[in-house]
Amino acid sequence: MHKVNRKTFNEGELETLCRIIADTNDGLTGSQIEYFLRMLKFKDTDPTLTKWKRLYNALANRQNQTNSGNCVLSFISKSFAPSRYIGNKDFYYDKLEKINTILLFHGLEFKDDGKFHRVLSTKTLAEAEKRASRLTERVTSRHLHPHLLKYCKKELLQNNYFHAVLEATKSIASMIRTKTGLVSDGAKLVEEAFGGSNPLLKINSFKTESEISEQKGFVNLAKGLFGTFRNPTAHAAKIEWNMSEEDSIDLFTLASYVLRRIEKSN
Predict the structure, then answer these.
(1) What 3-state DSSP class applies to 107?
(2) Residue 44: exposed, middle, or buried by beta-carbon count in 10 A (0-12, 13-18, 19+)?
(3) What is the rounded CA–CA span in Å between residue 44 and residue 47?
(4) Strand locations in the chain (E)
(5) Gap between the Cα atoms of 168 and 250, Å rounded
(6) Nearest-CA neighbor of 159 among 104, 227, 114?
């Protein structure tokens, strides 16, 4: 941890981070800021100031003393340890998403495992905005199923096609489990939910030969998604999985179709 980032955060980066962390409406409280500063043994230089300014001055002072941005990372690591946000997941991921927008300039990402990870850094605001919006805009324009977007939001914002693919297939399994109470995964889950002569879930009336054939085709389609995308991404190293933006867009469209059929099944 202490060797992660020798580079200091500039004034604008540090201010933005402090405004996110100590936001008036949903940020850390004054007592929480005091607690973490004391835990890290950082001098609370201006305890009477507005929360974000108080945090900014404390971290800026420490950063100037050490000539390193590690103090900022230490504060993030302590105050956003995942165990502190059990039962408050949406708030947690929203904060991480905003924090990581700044960390991206330093080639870092703080994940929900409580650790910093190296990622491809950005050098300009234009590049950061482009990376954060291009794929999301293209996906949104296709009006994809909201359940899919919920699972892939973080990965889409980072144009992380590899993990966006994995999360897309997870969203399908999640919806099936919610509707059925089943606990299996992948092709087995699809077969248990939609397969057999009297399926647990039916995408149609399942009476005519044509409807039965459509159900079987849907089972093969859904199982194919898991076999083609979920299994390789889950077991292959990221560097070995060449997922282009075009392929990922096509996958999301297909996954969205599967989700809509699952949602309407009975």
Answers:
(1) coil
(2) middle
(3) 6
(4) 108-110, 116-118
(5) 12
(6) 104
Distance of CA 239 to the CA centre of its chain: 20
Terminus-to-terminus CA distance in the chain, angstroms? 50
Q: What is the pLDDT along the chain (266 residues), one digit of tens a residue?
A: 444 556 899 999 999 999 999 998 889 999 999 999 999 999 999 999 999 999 999 999 999 999 999 999 999 999 999 999 998 877 888 788 788 888 888 888 898 899 998 888 877 766 665 554 545 556 666 777 777 777 776 666 555 666 777 788 888 999 999 999 999 998 999 999 999 999 999 999 999 999 999 999 999 999 998 887 665 444 444 444 566 667 777 888 888 899 999 999 99
3-class DSSP state of 23: coil
State the Cα–Cα distance between residues 185 and 225, nearest whole angstrom: 12
Contact 259, 147 (CB under 8 A): yes
- C-alpha R_g of the chain: 23
Measure the CA–CA gap between 59 and 51, rounded to whole angstroms: 12
Rounded Cα–Cα distance for residues 40 and 60 (Å): 14
Dihedral of CA 179/185/187/188: which sign? negative
Among residues 134, 130, 123, 169, the alpha carbon closest in space to that of 245 is found at: 134
Can you give the pTM of this predicted structure?
0.52
CB atoms inside a 10 Å sphere around CB 85: 16
Annotate 31-80 with DSSP letters as a single string.
HHHHHHHHHHT---S-TTS-HHHHHHHHHHHHHHHHTSTHHHHHHHHHHT
